[in-house]
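I'll show a sample.
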Amino acid sequence: MPSFNIPHDRDKKLPLTAGMGMWSTHPIPDTPLGSVTLSDGPMGLTGGRVDERDIALLSPCGLALGASWDRVLVRRVGDVIGQEAQRTGVQALLAPNLNLMRSPMAGRAFELFGEDPRHIAEMGAAWIDGVQSRGVGCVVKHMVCNDSETDRRTMNVVVDEVTLREVYFWPFERAASQGVWGMLTAYNRVNGIYCAEQHQAISQWLKADLGWDGLVMSDWFGTQSGIASFRAGLDLEMPGPARHMGDKLRELLDENDTARLDDAVARLSRFAERVSIPSRYDPAPQAQRQRTQVLEEAAAAGFVLLKNRDNLLPLKPASRLAVIGPNAQTPCFQGGTFARVALMPDLITPIAALHQRFAHEGVEVEYAQGVESDYRIPPLTALALRCDDDEPGLEVIYATSRQGECHRERRNASSLIWFRDMPGVGDLLALDDEATVTVRTRFIATRTGVYRFWLGGTGTISLTLNGDTVAHFNGEALDGDIMGKLMQAASDTVEYELVEGVTLNLTLEMTLSRSIAHGIWFGCQQPQTVDLLAEAVACARRADSVVMVIGETADAGLESIDRHTTALPDHQVALINAVCAANPRTVVVLNIAHPVDTHCLEQAAAVMVAWYPGQEFGPALASVLAGDREPGGRLPVTFAREETDYPVIDLTPDSHGNLTYHEGLRVGYRYFAARECAPAWAFGYGIGYADITFGETLLHQAEGARLSVAFSLYNASPRAGKAVVQIYLCPPAATGDAPLLTLADFAAVTVAAGQSATVSVPLDDRLFRRWHPDKQAWERQTGHWKILTGSASDTITASFAVQVTETGVLITG
């Protein structure tokens, strides 16, 4: 129970089961516990307005942190994010995301730590520990099986209970056992039941079996039935005001619900008490530099070097370095979900960082874009926009038919989104009038040719250019839920010819009606006046070495949308082929956050995956390419040779809305191992700059104690380096089934230059258990097990046999 007594009056308790506002809970009556302020935050603080004005530090994405395999470092990143929350007055974060990358097509893959439940659980626990050490709560998401985005609000995951408990629920179980303060239920259904109504997962597994005392809340607008969710164990419906719970439950509850109501209020009170400690944020410039240094270190620690022919990296002294690719100038720092972070000003791009790093060595750095960026909607803000008063940005004017103009503001964004509240207009759900949003700006054309403009939104929109209305868009006619509309950002385009030096005045006007949210988006692509590919090839030929930075854009990884292919865009593949042919000393840096087709990378001398590395991408990349830091990452996901080798490709539910998890326990690398299918690059794989070899590996067991694996490592190189030791288990084979290869534990180890190091990793006895649905319990799986050790799921250096009995585990070989 919390330290403060919860209210006894039912009329005071009921409102507490729903949020007070979009990002806040109700204060606890008759106690000092106030409203809790929440924020989305897997990569940093989004701010309550979810737009470009609430700037915050941006960390590497989940896959990048997962690629570090470094619990200590990930905890430090969590600590930085916790400090940012304190700086901004946020008390709890909807993070981390503990779902699995079941398929490389998952649209939200970048938020995830990887494809293995135990690896995810350990990385998540470290991040949670760092954040909560600052007195900031974590609300882990999305429980459970929100592993894809297509039709996520209606689709039904069909999965057997053993797989559900051992794979998809496991990271949440680990978070609960480590003391996370909150959990967020997913939108989807599992075996026919909406996640917010999953009594077994919420009330039985979490609250009863694990004895977890935290708060369970719904994802935003993710409650379908208030009474069913409440009785299943959901404590808090978000956001507020109440839609299905809170006072909406008044006529639905009976005396049998009294204890459940007390439990919900006690959990909210405990949550509010836990996050009510005073801030310990240090605003000093030195402290801020230390925080950004952690983010740079984390970015580099997640870079995965996949190949390095003839030791091209780190780059050797040279006279000319070619930097090619759109992502060197306009990198993808993060994904495009509602959890995107407003970036700090003046971030250092990769090309700028490379100029800075190599200039003092006398290296001439030449840049060529190579191809256009692959924006779904090219940002309008890439142009030099001006308002009527000649200040930079866009002018946004809000009006209603009754009031006329009621608010105006200056913005600097290519999409505007409003949840529940719109400036001057008020609560969008209470809107009983017709409202309009007008966006006005202008720019001077820098090139002569045809400009393409994009327009879209959730209302009826018109686009006017230099006084001519040239296009219309009807967002009200779009199918789907409003959240899906916002993220999918459907749009139309129109072409308009301009002459260099001419001023273009642009006006978008959207008429809208009542809704939980609204949005408008717009963009522009300038005419291309040079042959980018020919320019890049010429640049590559002049250089001693080439660094090519390609990949995705800030609107690539989205909510509500999954991918349809792992292939890079055709023009990027053409760029890789042409540049590698022109200069065989080419490094390809992949600014992506999911596995990609690898065939186009065969001619590159070196390949490195940078993921979405956060705000310190530029400095981290320059330091790794120069050899100041190691590329410390190991793959948290499998890269297949062929797209058809993945266990799951199509994430579209069937005609009944069902998405069957047909691969069962064999997710990710387990599927490749069971089929004896060689990947292009395996789970756990990655190379650094140091030459570290495995020496003797021993399996120990003191009398009456659990097992431990001792690794000996030797670094033969003149620089320190990192190794990631990995332990896998092969349980007894079920009849007719191949044994499963499962990650048991791991450790990231730094080995000094020319030195040896040893590390001992204990193995928890619980690793040898299986879930029994009929008994609703974990039990030892007796029989002959194998313990395998190595540096990747397909690179095993030692093997041991053990016998698991009802009473213990014995080493047999």
The first strand starts at residue 38 and ends at 40. Residues 784 and 803 are 5 Å apart (CA to CA).
